[in-house]
């Protein structure tokens, strides 16, 4: 996939996670989760810019996803452990967001004819579903539209119902109203 396709696919795959954060009243964590996911979904293609790295080499592996997850977990939990954002989530949640960001890129590349060496350096086997060419403008645009639609649905669903924080605030207001009547 090209960068727009990777971003769209990441939005599509991260929409349920963003919804989960928002329904829990963790809007800042939802925003940071999506930002980290999109950034990490583009990171594997940095191998095109770095001398000595082969495109779709080590940066396009599950090992890279595991390392990214660890860096996100350590970075967010150490730098901002009590923030309203991703750092305020558990280490496991931060780790999974990091892994998922790179994995979303891998999903975008494994569907192309070129494929990826998913288990490198343990195996040199190339995995490819050969569904669509990475350069397909139609496929890239459909992923952008699909990801955007998924996020819009997520935001409309999570904005319409009460969140954990909203429920707590409503209960606190009701408690204050009762105590002021006494």
From TrEMBL:
**Transmembrane regions listed in the UniProt entry:** 58-76, 96-120
* Positions in coiled-coil regions: none
Keywords, sorted A to Z: Hydrolase, Membrane, Transmembrane, Transmembrane helix
Lineage of source species = Archaea, Methanobacteriati, Methanobacteriota, Stenosarchaea group, Halobacteria
Q: What organism does this protein naturally occur in?
A: Haloarcula onubensis
Q: What is this protein called?
A: Metal-dependent hydrolase
Question: What is a single molecular function from GO for this protein?
Answer: hydrolase activity
Q: Does the keyword Methyltransferase apply?
A: no
Domain of life, source organism: Archaea
Where is the stretch described as Disordered? 162-182
Q: Name one Pfam family in it.
A: YdjM
Q: Which residues form the signal peptide?
A: none
